[in-house]
Amino acid sequence: MRPPNLLFIFTDEQRYDTMGSHRLIAKCVAFEEAIRVPLLVRQPGQQSAARVETPVSQIDLVPTLLDLMGQPVPEGLEGTSLRPCFEGRAEAPPGDVFVEWNGHNNGLGDVIGQVSIPEPLRELAAKDEIISAITDPVRTVITSDGWKLNCSPRGEHELYNLTRTHSRHRTWPARSERR
Predict the structure, then answer these.
(1) Is the pLDDT of residue 168 over 60?
(2) What angle (nearest 5°) sits at the alpha carbon of residue 42, between those of residues 41 and 45?
């Protein structure tokens, strides 16, 4: 028997890895397979399920938890409570979701300052190019209307329309290649 005031939340800070998608094994990329994480909430007394279709950010988790526990949300705390969405009283708040990757711990057995490159990857590019690519601190923004922009200090920026399958609109060249 479940306690009457039990609040159940299941989430993760990131997906485990890409599981071979895009021929990758690590989670060091901003592909959907690596950044979409579960967020399951079961409230006390909840009788039916609700699904939030738009992207939400984990930054909304603390305000949501405080709201669900009947506690005040401190002024200045970032994020918005998703409780009205879970209860079917409102749509998810329109907002952008930000994702960042800081470059190290790429899942290839590396430690900061040292990158281990598996043998099959060594055929793809020069060692310094592989190290630069897998340690690239990419920043991503996903909008509520289905756009995703990846920004890279290497200059390899990408814009995707997530409402279309396999849609990449433009990859901008590295700064050194611009004229």
Answers:
(1) no
(2) 150
